[in-house]
Amino acid sequence: MSKKTQLFIACGLAVVSIYANSASNYAQLQQQVIANDSILKSLQNSQTAFEVNQKFAGKLNNPTFNAELDNLGNSKLKELDGPSTMIGLSQEIPLNNKRALRQQVAGFQGNTNEYEIVKRQADLKADLRICMSNWFVASQRAQIYATESKLNARQANVLNEKLKFGRVIPSEVQLSSALSSESKLRHSNELKKIQYQKNLCSKFIPDLPNQAVEVPLTINFSDKTSLSEREASLKSQLAKSQFELAKKEAVPDITVGVGVRNYQETNDKVFLVSTSIPLPVFNRNNGKIAIAQAEQNYAEIRSALTARNTKIELENKQIQISNLIDAIHQYDKTLLPATNESLRIAEMGYQAGKISLLEFNSIKQIWLDKHLARYDLWLALQNEIAEVERNYVTDLAKE
């Protein structure tokens, strides 16, 4: 996306952004969620184990202790040479960089755990944003329904006064009373939704504030790294190392031994040096090499495809978020002020008998629909931002 478009998005976000203290409160809640998550703590504690595993992955195999007792049962050889004993040590020595590759593979396991840590943090941020946004929207809708209920109550009172003087028919009074009761019920139900959404958010933070916190509409599209792209890249690197290791494992290790032999008959001691080299006549590793190569090719293709798709998806998210910001800006600047003014004039006109009850209720319904639609757009915008938070991070090293 061009710099001009990014600047436009930033300006739009500034228009619909909340006050600085609300952003600060939300940031503190976000930090509490990340700090108190038990799954995240478990992943972080596991990182030490992966570091230990990487440290020991490249070490040599343990040496072998050898002991031999020779020439104990053959009497003729006993008279000729006498019995002998031998003790020694043998050690397998790789002929290539198997150890470095084993350590590299173990390191990728640790990188995968780090990726899981970052992914868990991203999921927590996205889930918290969605939950807190629904809580805030429920509280705003309750205020809208409260205003509607008061408006219907005033309308019912006006009709009751007009009925005393015979200026309206009883059916209009009954309809107005029914609408007033209905709006009170909607307001009551919305108040219950506030508590319902708050209870959902308490799964993340037990000690929530009394009132819903407006979630900031802040997001930066620059320097974004896709988590799925990062995961595919890790798998590609791991597959490459496993393929190289499979090729190296086809060359067997040599065994070097040292020892000392003692001849009891003559009390002579002989120092021994030995080596054994397996002959790779029957290479049983060809199957592993073929599988490792196939997995590497698949991982590389998947990594390239994921990198391409995630860039397209992020650009589409920018377009969707920009459109939602434009729509909210239009509501705040034009539609909502117009409907507010239209409702104010309609109420005065109805009380003065210049418009009918049907016309007044129609204008009132438009006012209600537009105010509710504004927060539907706001919630849709928060969901889009949450999806970006869940799938993209700015800097993996800092997350």
From TrEMBL:
Keyword terms, alphabetized: Signal
GO MF term list: efflux transmembrane transporter activity
Annotated Pfam families: OEP (PF02321)
Leader sequence residues: 1-22
Record family assignment: Belongs to the outer membrane factor (OMF) (TC 1.B.17) family.
Annotated protein name in UniProt: Cobalt-zinc-cadmium resistance protein CzcC
Naturally occurring in which organism (per UniProt): Acinetobacter indicus CIP 110367
